[in-house]
Write a structure and sequence with these properties.
The complex is a heterodimer. Chain A is mainly alpha-helical. In chain A, 76% of the residues lie in helices and 0% in strands. The chains are: A mainly alpha, B mainly alpha.
Chain lengths: 309, 316
């Protein structure tokens, strides 16, 4: 009898392995340095956005504005950062601070994060459209160079994904701040009574989400080379699905940083897999929904086993 | 004055009507006192669609924290596409078209609740995943065709009586029915009870599962109805016809004074909020605001309303 807890932790990796094996089977030519690089390059910004979402979900909130935020970062970096590096960098820092401010507002007034971030998504999109009404701008050369770098033996996207997963895992699962942050999702009242500032915890987590949203925007811009306010609208859904695929829960501070990155990789790969399958474009999005449902069904079975034992 | 204030505190939905009136006044004043009636008529016409999906979303949100229906836009699209294709511009096929569209919506509602119940996944993810499948079905079935609605349907959706759209009057009656259901039936009281404390409701012997099931089905059916009417109004179904309604359905519920934490629904507020949202965009248009400014203003106002209305102490 396998250990359900172990099975649950292994499920995201198992899912990725299955999707990867299926992709190799359908299109053997992807089993190469070049093929993996091409299929997974967009996994980097998705993994970063998913990590950002995970920070918010850790404290029992949900961020419906991360997609437009990633788009806004790209727009600022493709315009202001080129024109005046100091001003552009200041604008990017202001965006991260704004995230912290939203965290403070949500905590201080005990507001539902879904509604606040819903409103916020309009604000990010509006600012981005004001700066760049139609797609354009130009990615800073350094970003382009970084995102297309050819690392030896292992493709860059895989190295980047592993690095993100390990760093966030160490920060959230092994440090004392990480324990408090997850505790803020598990039992905020208990932690507050023990003397920890829930306001500070929430602001830090929201700002961390802002930082990773920022990195996601820059990474995406490095790949697309020009900016568009709407380029990352789907990232909101991707990031939530990635966290859940990676074994995270909406409530209780139960998250899994490595899993979240793996979930993001799975989503990116599933897109490529569906293209190789030559599924009619009509059903592409539906197939993604079906994959999500199948994975969640598997998890429901595992959780059932976990509860029984 | 104090009387007015306590009145306002007791009836949070009045705020949305006051805000709508204020925005309308500003728009008319800026336009030089002209066109007030026409602005109101179109606000009623467009607001009606938001109200229909808002009613369903309100019932879902009232069943408690975490409950939200993200499949509304996809369901609207599927329903609109099916209705137009089955009717095929023929008035004689109108009834069967409506039945087919509503039947498909019913299936979506059942699937949604089945996913939530069987897979024990949060409604957000359940309705999101199902919406992907629903949208693909609509895309595949619709094949990008734009079929005109049969004349009687188009007429019903667009005709006006003394400047008031007929559809708005019909949906006003529907809202009244939903308000009665919410306040005066066992089902409606159970919805509120579940939202306040699901466990307590269950221990009290209320039919929690059946009520949640009925609520998700109701939301899907209302989305389907909205899809049919919207197709009649705008000369056919389009694959992006539901896009704006996801955010709008949640926004009108929240601005209308329904508790986001669940347990307290509010029907009149949905009307006020729907009118307010439309009039706000109209006002900003009259002011000559750019699309970016309009988006930022919409966002800021949603955040401001929820901040002023305040979060309530959650019981859990």
């Amino acid at each position: 009898m396998t250990n359900p807890r172990l099975l649950r932790a292994a499920l995201p990796f198992l899912t990725l392995a299955i999707v990867l094996a299926a992709t190799f089977y359908v299109q053997p030519r992807t089993m190469s340095y070049f093929g993996l690089n091409l299929m997974l390059q967009y996994a980097v910004p998705i993994a970063l956005a998913t990590t950002a979402q995970m920070f918010i979900i850790t404290v029992n909130d949900l961020d419906l504005s991360i997609g437009p935020f990633v788009g806004l970062i790209g727009v600022i970096a493709a315009t202001a950062l080129n024109a005046s590096p100091v001003l552009g960098a200041a604008a990017l820092v202001a965006c991260v601070l704004a995230y912290g401010l939203v965290g403070a507002l949500v905590h201080a007034r005990n507001l539902p994060s879904i509604v606040v971030t819903l409103g916020l998504s309009f604000v990010w999109l509006g600012i981005a459209v004001m700066i760049l009404p139609s797609p354009g701008g130009k990615a800073p050369a350094a970003l382009k160079a970084l995102m297309t770098v050819q690392t030896p033996y292992v493709p860059f996207p895989i190295l980047a994904a592993v690095a993100i997963g390990v760093i966030v895992h160490l920060a959230l699962m092994t440090t004392s701040f990480g324990v408090i942050a997850r505790g803020a999702g598990g039992n905020p009242k208990a932690l507050a009574r023990a003397g920890w500032s829930m306001l500070r915890t929430k602001v830090v987590m929201y700002m961390l989400a802002g930082v990773f949203g920022l990195l996601s925007g820059l990474a995406l811009l490095g790949l697309t080379t020009s900016a568009d306010a709407h380029v990352a609208d789907r990232y909101t859904l991707y990031s939530i699905a990635g966290v859940i695929l990676g074994g995270g829960e909406f409530m209780g501070g139960r998250v899994n940083p490595m899993g979240a990155v793996v979930g993001a990789l799975t989503l990116a790969l599933a897109g490529a897999f569906l293209i190789f399958l030559r599924i009619s474009p009509d059903w592409q999005i539906g197939a993604q929904g079906a994959i999500l449902i199948v994975v969640l069904a598997m998890r429901a079975l595992v959780t059932y086993g976990e509860k029984r034992s | 004055m104090t009387g007015l204030r306590t009145h306002l505190a007791e009836k949070p939905w009045l705020w949305s009507f006051l805000a709508a009136a204020l925005v309308w006044g500003l728009a008319v004043a800026f336009a030089g006192g002209h066109g007030g009636g026409e602005i109101l008529t179109s606000a009623l016409a467009f607001g009606t669609f938001t109200v229909i999906v808002g009613l369903g979303q309100m019932m879902v949100i009232t069943t408690g924290p975490g409950n939200v229906d993200l499949s509304i836009p996809a369901t609207m699209t599927l329903s609109g596409v099916i209705a137009m294709k089955v009717m095929d511009t023929d008035s004689a096929h109108m009834l069967i078209g409506i039945l087919a569209a509503m039947g498909a919506s019913l299936v979506v509602g059942i699937v949604n609740y089945t996913l939530i119940r069987l897979l024990r996944i949060p409604p957000i993810i359940a309705t999101l995943s199902s919406s992907f499948l629903v949208l693909s079905t609509a895309i595949s079935y619709g094949r990008g065709l734009r079929i005109k609605p049969p004349p009687p349907l188009a007429e019903f959706a667009t005709v006006r009586m003394f400047g008031i759209p007929l559809a708005a009057i019909a949906i006003c009656l529907l809202s009244l029915a939903v308000a009665v259901i919410l306040k005066g039936t066992v089902y409606g009281r159970t919805v509120a009870a579940i939202g306040q404390n699901e466990r307590a409701a269950w221990l009290a012997g209320l039919n929690v599962r059946g009520t949640r099931f009925a609520t998700y089905v109701l939301s899907a059916l209302l989305a389907g109805l909205c899809g049919i009417l919207q197709s009649g109004f705008s000369g056919g179904a389009a694959l992006n016809m539901g896009d704006d309604f996801l955010l709008a359905s949640i926004a009108v519920v929240v601005i209308g004074g329904t508790s986001v934490a669940g347990g307290r629904g509010n029907v009149p507020g949905i009307w006020g909020a729907a009118l307010f949202m439309y009039l706000l965009v109209t006002m900003l248009n009259i002011f000559g605001a750019s699309p970016g400014v309009r988006l930022v203003m919409t966002g800021v106002i949603i955040i401001a309303v929820i901040t002023i209305a305040g979060g309530e102490r959650q019981t859990r």
